[in-house]
Amino acid sequence: MNKKEVSTTHAGNVSFANEITVHRLGYGAMRLTGAGIWGPPKDRKLALAVLRRAVELGVNFVDTADSYGPYVNEELIAEALFPYPSGLVIATKGGWERPAPNQWTHNATPAHLRKAVEGSLKRLRLARIDVYQLHVPDPVVSFDASVEALAELQGEGKIRMVALSNVTQEHIERARKIVPVVSVQNRYSFADREWDYVVDYCERNGIVFIPWFPLGAGRIAGEVLNQVAQAHHAAPTQVALAWLLGRSPMILPIPGTSSLEHLEQNMAAASLRLSEEEYQKLAGVPELVGTR
Ligand SMILES: NC(=O)c1ccc[n+]([C@@H]2O[C@H](COP(=O)([O-])OP(=O)(O)OC[C@H]3O[C@@H](n4cnc5c(N)ncnc54)[C@H](OP(=O)(O)O)[C@@H]3O)[C@@H](O)[C@H]2O)c1
Asked: Which residue minimizes the CA distance to atom 10 of ligand 1?
């Protein structure tokens, strides 16, 4: 790969509701907690260093959630980065609780979401959260009631913009009748394309699409990825990220890592451009999986 200076600025920009603009390669902080996304990190100093280095490399969008740790992830972000540099956007989430290690339970009642937003404000030391994401719709709570609660918190000035995660197009359309939705975060990569139609919907509607688990998996995916990576003298993870950047101008990848070395490598993907042929080869991986 071309040894340009590593900077997320090379990925270009993307805007949330034409109001908040960030570089189009962010950082997902989830991996900075203990094993199983539970408790404090094994190496606290390293976790803080990764966050600070991400910002030095141009990251101005950091994704987190109250459930990562729980709470630990938001506390680490504040410890590493507060007072925040101007333009840094921290997107957090609520509605998904952690009663014990390896347990994730829904709770998107309006009362819980209010408590969750207030907790995140305190831990992140913010007066207002720029982007607040409903982590996942709660099957035992009316989806509209969850979104109305976020709209109310926005009205009170505690949330600047409302966003969704782990949703279908129908959810997005229903939510948009209540409040503007600025971004959607679903699992997505070149090899994992269940949400292709949601990516297209987001692009048509100027909604940022944030793919989680952006580093593709599986044997066939690995074979194709390695071929393209070798041609660019790049790491397979960089190629997976470059594919996402090529997929839609509204995609904002947030690769996660707890390693400084992987962070540098992931952020360097901002400068990697795939040829149309390479892009299409990777785009065809789900079909290859179906035929073997
Ligand atoms: N909305 C949701 O429901 C949801 C769910 C999951 C995640 N997320 C968000 O999405 C972000 C990204 O998702 P993710 O962490 O699951 O997936 P990911 O970014 O695709 O993968 C992270 C994993 O890949 C490894 N890795 C990272 N960079 C690497 C590199 N250059 N070379 C080799 N291995 C590398 C990491 O290990 P090392 O630590 O060793 O680098 C880690 O195990 C999370 O941080 C979180 O903010 C959201």
From this structure: 212
Is 68 a known active-site residue? Answer: yes
Q: Which helix (H) or strand (E) holds 247?
A: helix 236-247
Strand partners, 90: 62
Q: Which ligand 1 atom sits closest to the C-alpha of 63?
A: 47
Task: Decide: 104 in ligand 1 pocket, CB within 6 A.
Answer: no
Q: Is 138 left (phi over 0), alpha (psi -120 to 50) or beta?
A: beta
Per-residue pLDDT of the chain (292 residues; tens, 9 = 90+): 655 688 999 999 999 999 999 999 999 999 999 999 999 999 999 999 999 999 999 999 999 999 999 999 999 999 999 999 999 999 999 999 999 998 999 999 999 999 999 999 999 999 999 999 999 999 999 999 999 999 999 999 999 999 999 999 999 999 999 999 999 999 999 999 999 999 999 999 999 999 999 876 667 788 999 999 999 999 999 999 999 999 999 999 999 999 999 999 999 999 999 999 999 999 998 877 766 5
Asked whether 254 lines ligand 1 (CB < 6 A), one says yes
Please give the Cα distance from 168 to 275 (Å, whole number): 31
CB neighbours of residue 123 within 10 Å: 21
Measured CA to CA, the distance from residue 209 to residue 111 in angstroms comes to 27
Whether 28 lines ligand 1, by a CB cut-off of 6 Å, is yes
Inter-CA distances, 200 with 20, 108, 263, Å: 21, 27, 28
Q: Which atom of ligand 1 is nearest to the CA of 64?
A: 47
Hey, which residues does 186 pair with through a beta bridge? 211
Q: What is the pTM of this model?
A: 0.97
Catalytic residue among 68, 188, 197, 279: 68
Task: Check if 262 has its Cβ closer than 6 Å to any atom of ligand 1.
Answer: yes
